[in-house]
Each structure stands twice: as C-alpha cells, then as structure tokens.
Specification:
32% of the residues lie in helices and 5% in strands. The strands form four sheets. Strands 1-2 form a two-stranded antiparallel sheet. Strands 3-4 form a two-stranded antiparallel ribbon. A hairpin with a 6-residue loop joins strand 1 and strand 2.
Length: 475
C-alpha cells in the first residue's frame, strides 16, 4: 500500500472515528496480519447469520429428532428410576400426588450407606458419585432453548392458537414427575379467596375475567404484560427458529404458569462456552415479594431487575446481538417493568396449615415423624443454616463444590463442570415444585435429601431421612 493511499484512508475514517483510532487502523493496514486465537468450544457468541435456510434446518432437525430423544431417554434411564409411584400426599391444588422414593440409581456396587461413610476424595477416586447427582444436560444441549411440557403446549394452543411445540425436541420427563397442572394461584392481598385461578390456566383470554375485582388496575396491567408474547431465541419470526410456523414468541407465564412453574427448562445465559452451560428449571414465582436476589447465577437484586434482564437478554441466551435481530422487547422501567413487578409481588405461597407464623410446626397438627423431621431440619441436617424460616431462604449464594466428588466429563453434549455459586431457593411449598435443584436433576424430595446427606457429609440414618422428607412436605 502506498503512502498516498494510506493517507486517503485516514482522511475518510476520520469522518466517523476518532484520530487515535485512525492511527491504529492505519498502522494495522501495513502490519502483518495476526491470526486470531481459536474460540473455545461453542464460543461466546451465537452465529448472527444462519448458514442454512429455514427449510434445510427444519428437514435436518426433524430427521435427527428421534435419535436426540432416544439418546436423552437412555441418559435418563441410566440415571433414574422414573416409575410412577405416588405418595399419599397431594400437591396444594389437590390435582396430583407427590412422588415418593429415591429415584437416583447407584453404580459400581455402591449403596447409600457405604457412600455416606466415604470421604469425597474416596468417592472421586473410585468414580462412585451418582450420575443423577451430576448436572443434568438439556435434551439438546448444543442448541438449548425453552422446552415446554405437553400439557402447557396443548392448553395454549387451545386457548390462544399459539404453538409452543418445537420441531427439533420434546419435553424429556414423564408427567408424574412435574408439578400439578394447572397449579393454583394465591394472592397475598386476598388470602381469603384461596385459588383465584379457579382451576384454569391464566392466558390473555381469561385473565381479566378471573382477576377482575381481585387485583388493582396496575396489577391487572402487569398481568397483561406477563401474558403478552415476545420473541425468544427459538420462538420468533426469523429463519433461525425452532418452531414450524413464524411465532410472536413466548410469555412470562408460559413457563411460570399461574405464577408458579410447569417444569419448562432451558439453559442459563451466564456461562460460556456452550458446552459448559447449565440446564435451568423454571423456578416458581410464589413468594417473590420476600426474596432479595433473583436468577440462579446472576444474583439480580430486585424483581424489576429480573424482569428487565429476562426480556432484554435471557430470552436470547444472554446475547444482545441476536436479541436485536429477532425482535427484542425493551419494557420501559418506570411503567411496564414496574407493573409487571407489582403483579409478580402479589403471588403468594400456598397455605401451610401445619406451620405457625414463624414457620415452625404446630405440635397438635403434626405427626411424630414430621416433628422429628423438623428437629433434623434445624439440627443434624443443617438445612436451616441456608433455609431459614418462615420463608426458608437466606437470600445468599452458596457453592457446594461438587468438584470434590467427580471429574468433569462430556455427557449428552454438556461438560458437566461443578455448579459454582447458586442462590438459595425457598422451600415454602416445595412439594409443589418437582423436579428439584436448579437444573431439575433431583426427581423427588427423597433424592434431594440423599443428595445433601452425601454432599454435606451429614450421616443421616434411614429413619432420619424419612422424617426429614415428612417435614419438607409440610412446608
């Protein structure tokens, strides 16, 4: 390049960039090209320009779907006993029984008693940490995205003629493992009414009828916004979507149905590369009024922050570039976001008739097993150190350091590294929210107790574990 041509380039660039940047660009024009370092597997950014047409992607994904589902089912069957074994305890809406029993499978000849007596180092050296206690991959981990259960898909199609079914994957857990559908909806302002949903799934077609005279106009507008579809990474109008027909998107309550959860899952937007991302189970919105941090990894400090972040980037895998392309909704903070937050803050926990106002059991209403379980919860089980009553939460982030127990490896397209810090989730109404843990890796409360018994080296007896489960069902 001649000196004259370099000078001309500099004058043109000076119109739109700073003099300092012009100097850097001019120097780069004569410098030897530097080959960029290869990105980590999966990279940081999602490709903005698809390399295939929609029809090509559709044909390939539909052809691959059977194998994708078969591989995930094999993974689940290796890890869990997914039989339908209901207990005699009903969820809060009395529509579904709580599942019972340990479902995580052991390997290598181990049993729960022998594992409980081993050190983390010994478990790791012998590779005996149960695979059901490791991170659970998304059904199609390299792609990720929201995957809805069939009952939600069917109801939204019936009421609104919107299609939440993906052509590349289906929901991977059996219905009996998931929350009751539809879940009841309780309001902090009207506890006398009980379930204000009247057994219906709130949508744009019925929310006004169901909530008229029960919420304020501000809260009603917040509910309208929570039920308004907005584009999402896999549900949109572009050729880079995972629904057959162009879509206006999803609503907040497509996942948080009736302000609770239907076990819809996706992947956390906070981790890269793609293979290291975590499956994320939809958390209940019940009791948001008394929670101080939100988002399993993000530690957002208000429900307003959470609402705004979800719409701006979490819907798009934490990538603002693809968000702008697919139809980003930017809710206005002082009006739309505030109203959405107002409505979310009205969602109450289900009744817990055996608890007093401080979250302790009322002796005359509890069984002996439940009372003994409460003692374990506040004592040997160490549960109350993070889950403090009456809302059974401490608004902190904690790291269980699961790397003590296993070596990370690629499973189902996910490199199952340790979780890192995760926020404490409330245990109020926990029987209504299976599966458990932030990624849904624990199918039952019994699994959850076994997990923490091992990870925290609690050395609980079988009877103590059973009593602790009995107490958790009271919350």
């Amino acid at each position: 390049m001649t000196q004259r041509s370099q000078s001309m380039i500099g004058r043109v660039l000076a119109v739109v960039v700073s003099p300092a940047l012009v100097g850097l660009l001019a120097a780069a024009a004569v410098a030897q090209p530097v080959k960029p370092a290869p990105p980590s597997e999966g990279g940081t950014y999602i490709p903005v320009v698809p390399t295939q047409t929609f029809e090509q992607t559709f044909q390939k994904d539909t052809a691959d779907k059977a194998k994708v589902q078969s591989d995930q089912q094999a993974l689940l069957d290796k890890r869990y006993d997914l039989r339908n074994d209901p207990s005699n305890v009903q969820m809060s809406g009395q529509r579904k029984a709580v599942q019972q029993g340990v479902r995580v499978k052991l390997h290598g000849g181990a049993n729960w008693a022998s594992l409980g007596g081993m050190t983390p180092e010994a478990i790791k050296s012998k590779n005996l940490f149960p695979y059901g206690f490791r991170p659970l991959p998304h059904v199609k981990h390299p792609t990720g995205g929201m995957v809805f259960p069939k009952n939600q898909i069917d109801e939204i199609k019936k009421q609104e003629a919107r299609d939440l079914a993906r052509f590349d994957v289906d929901f991977d857990l059996p219905d009996h493992i998931t929350p009751e559908f539809p879940p009841p909806m309780f309001l902090t302002s009207r506890p006398d009414l009980g379930d204000v949903s009247n057994g219906e799934v709130l949508t744009s077609k019925n929310y006004y009828r169901l909530l008229y005279g029960k919420v304020t106009p501000v809260q009603m507008e917040g509910m309208r916004l929570l039920l308004t579809p907005n584009p999402q990474q896999q549900f949109n109008q572009t050729e880079d979507r995972k629904v057959k027909d162009p879509s206006f998107g999803v609503t907040c309550l497509d996942c948080h149905v009736n302000g609770h959860t239907n076990a819809t899952f996706h992947e956390n937007p906070d981790t890269r590369p793609q293979s290291d991302r975590m499956r994320i189970e939809t958390v209940s919105l019940r009791g948001m009024f008394n929670q101080q941090i939100h988002g399993s990894k993000r530690s957002l400090r208000s429900i307003e922050d959470f609402t705004e972040f979800e719409q701006r980037t979490a819907y798009f895998d934490g990538d603002q570039v693809t968000a702008a392309k697919k139809g980003l909704f930017l809710p206005e903070r002082s009006a739309q976001v505030a109203m959405m937050a107002q409505m979310q803050n009205m969602l109450d926990f289900p009744p817990a008739p055996k608890l007093d106002v401080l979250g302790r059991l009322i002796p005359s209403k509890a069984t002996q097993a439940e009372l003994e379980g409460e003692k374990i919860f506040h004592g040997k089980g160490r549960c109350a150190e993070c889950h403090k009553g009456p809302f059974f939460i401490d608004d902190k982030m904690h790291d269980l350091h699961l790397e003590r127990f296993y070596e990370a490896e690629m499973i189902g397209g996910q490199r199952n590294i340790q979780d890192g810090p995760i926020k404490t989730f409330t245990l109020r109404g926990i029987k209504d929210s299976p599966p458990y843990h932030h990624d849904g890796r624990l199918m039952t409360l019994e699994d959850t107790v076994e997990f923490f018994n091992l990870v925290l080296t609690l050395k609980l007896s079988d009877q103590e574990k059973s009593n602790l489960v009995a107490f958790l069902r009271c919350l």
